[in-house]
Design goal:
Layout: H1 23-40, H2 58-76, H3 83-91, H4 102-121, E1 131-134, E2 139-142, H5 143-172
Antiparallel strand pairs: 1-2
Helix pairs in contact: 1-4, 1-5, 2-4, 2-5
Length: about 170
């Protein structure tokens, strides 16, 4: 359906070329992208790092949304994190450049969602219960558990991002 369809993504029907068991994961990721893009459309960069009541900043959530998808999908592929991923994790919550642009951060998240959707399309449903280790401790999980957690974790941070952004903007007005 057209992107102008105002229904939540999961109500728009199945996604083409997406394995049936992974449709809910894909729907959640697409919903997250739509919500982030709409919320951040006019968001001022000067408010990115504000932390009302000590909660995580909007900038942190935008970086974390991108990073956590990358990390969890790497684990789902059975890969350890790269040094680049570890470096990105270490900079979440900080502006690594002289100026962080909101739309650049939103675009990075959108590209990560595209990568995740491609991985979902290419995931063999017969391998969803294959064991996977998480982190240095190799905490046991499986492919499906990691993919579902990636979607759940993403939506949780979109909710936190939404509240923080609205509080910060309201306070600034």
């Amino acid at each position: 359906m057209a992107q102008t369809d105002k229904r939540e993504v999961w109500l728009r029907g199945p996604l083409q070329d997406m394995p049936p068991l992974l449709q809910p994961v894909a729907h959640a990721l697409l919903q997250a992208r739509e919500e982030v893009e709409a919320l951040m459309q006019e968001y001022p960069a000067t408010l990115l790092w504000e932390r009302p009541a000590g909660v995580a900043s909007v900038g942190f959530h935008l970086q974390h949304l991108t990073g956590v998808l990358d990390r969890l999908f790497s684990y789902a592929r059975g890969q350890a994190l790269t040094q680049e991923q570890l470096d990105a994790l270490a900079t979440e919550g900080k502006c690594p450049e002289a100026e962080c642009r909101v739309q650049d951060m939103v675009q990075m998240f959108s590209k990560q969602v595209d990568k995740a959707l491609e991985q979902l399309r290419n995931t063999d449903a017969q391998k969803l219960l294959e064991p996977r280790g998480v982190g240095w401790a190799q905490i046991p999980s499986n492919v499906l558990g990691l993919l579902v957690h990636a979607a759940e974790h993403t939506m949780r941070h979109v909710g936190q991002l939404t509240v923080t952004a609205r509080v910060v903007q309201n306070k600034a007005e």
